[in-house]
Amino acid sequence: MINKNEIHFRKANTSDISVIWEIIQQSIERRRIDGSTQWQNGYPNLQTVESDVSKGFGHVLTVDNKIAVYVALIFNDEPAYSSIEGAWLTTGEFVVVHRVAVSENFAGQGLAKKLFDYIEEYTKSQNVLSIKVDTNFDNLAMLKILESKGYSYCGEVVLAGGARKAFEKVLM
């Protein structure tokens, strides 16, 4: 079991990019093995990670100073979210969660769930009270996490040419 004191959430830096890319490649393969179409078309790629980090979007969850989970957090900017078949819970500022990827070395330890706790703390610290996220219809692990963390299903958005389930959580 992982001790909470060993876990830290921080912005990714350029020296993290190679490890992050390795973790994303592991996640791409995991999605393929699970029979998912998500992340099977060349996205995300190394340039995506480099862009995330250079723009300050990339964040990592570390365990004993080793990168265990990667996520991109983007404030108020996801063009695909302006058109939803359904309705968002809020219309104000929000944080978008993209590209959650867990290292094979840390898979199955509940760290993706723990990541969402850190995302909520970070979002509140930025005085933003809404988190929006989308995922593939066949990403059962992420759907289960979102349900367990109290995210509300809001409808469908089209992203990267495909329909995605869209969720929002309002932080009070």
Percent helix among the residues? 25-40%
- The CATH architecture can be named as 3-Layer(aba) Sandwich
* Integer-rounded radius of gyration: 15 Å
- What is the count of distinct domains? 1
List low-pLDDT spans. none
E-strand count? 8
TL;DR of this structure?
With 172 residues, this protein is of the alpha+beta class. The protein has helices at residues 17-33, 46-54, 111-125, 140-148, and strands at residues 7-11, 58-63, 66-75, 85-86, 95-102, 130-135, 152-159, 162-170. An 8-stranded mixed sheet has the order 1-2-3-5-6-8-7-4.
Plain-language structure description:
InterPro entries: Acyl_CoA_acyltransferase, GNAT_dom. GO terms for molecular function: acyltransferase activity, transferring groups other than amino-acyl groups. Residues 7-172 form the N-acetyltransferase domain. Helix content is 29%, strand content 31%. The chain starts with 6 loop residues before the first strand and ends with a strand. The mean pLDDT is 92. It has one domain: 3-Layer(aba) Sandwich (Aminopeptidase), CATH 3.40.630. It is globular and about 40 Å long. The chain has helices at residues 17-33, 46-54, 111-125, 140-148, and strands at residues 7-11, 58-63, 66-75, 85-86, 95-102, 130-135, 152-159, 162-170. It has an 8-stranded mixed β-sheet. The chain is of the alpha+beta class and 172 residues long. Helix 3 (111-125) links the parallel strand 5 and strand 6. The protein has 4 helices and 8 strands, in the order E-H-H-E-E-E-E-H-E-H-E-E.
